[in-house]
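Hi team,

As requested, here is the filled-out complex form for the adenosine-5'-triphosphate run. I kept the field names the same as last time so the parser does not choke. Let me know if anything looks off before we queue the next batch.

— J.
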Amino acid sequence: MTEEAIPMWIEDSVLHIGAEATAISGSWMGREAVLKKREPRAYRHPSLDRKLTRQRLAAEARVIARLQDLDFPSPLLLDVDAEGGWILISRIDGVPLYDALQNGDAGLKEIHKFGELIRKLHENDIAHGDLTTHNVIIDEHGNLTLIDFGLARIAPEIEQLGLDLQVLNECLTASHYNFESAVETMVDGYLSADSGNSSAISNLSAKEVVERFNAIRGRVRYHA
Ligand SMILES: Nc1ncnc2c1ncn2[C@@H]1O[C@H](COP(=O)(O)OP(=O)(O)OP(=O)(O)O)[C@@H](O)[C@H]1O
Ligand SMILES: [Mg+2]
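And here is what came back:
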């Protein structure tokens, strides 16, 4: 699969080479876009690899399309070819929250907002699956946009919702320990955004999810 085969795509520069995908910046029909290409993994059996690639990309596209319908701050789906192993999404202006927290351009206020945004995602019946500060982009006005839905789940169980908070807890404690009350602030934000009117099938309250998070956190501590 070469880039030339992707219709109307003009490649600019490589943004990120990840474990599973390469993210490339460019333009598509005159708009700023990002191409995420899944590279074949030599350590996996080729037919299993193709199947996994197809499934993950299709899942990512479904989640992004759904968020788009909900006006949730996430990239727009422009094009996808699950067989070809790529997805084209709109490019979000800004920097990863990770960087902004490291260089002091963001702080507890933004962490609180991140917690609110996660609650909004959960109320729309989606678990993210990889909630780190690398997967949220902050723009110059302080607006947050969530990205990277490659591991997201529609209609998740409470455990997956609790795990979203646990993954972020681990990220905040490992990378942003200079913000002492980061985890507490994120949880406060999560609880404060409980609309009491979730459209999720499970209809779990923010409090119930936080209780599950605390149980997972206790489990991890116990085994550490
Ligand atoms: N829509 C976008 N707008 C701006 N930057 C983006 C966008 N999508 C991805 N990026 C940049 O590319 C990086 C990698 O993208 P992403 O997180 O989606 O992939 P990944 O972590 O490699 O994927 P996966 O977890 O599926 O292996 C992001 O951290 C971000 O810096
Ligand atoms: Mg990522």
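Two things worth flagging: The longest strand covers residues 9-17. The pocket of adenosine-5'-triphosphate (ligand 1) is lined by residues 15-16, 18-21, 23, 34, 36, 75, 89, 91-92, 96, 130, 134-135, 137, 147-148, 150 (CB under 6 Å).

Thanks,
J.
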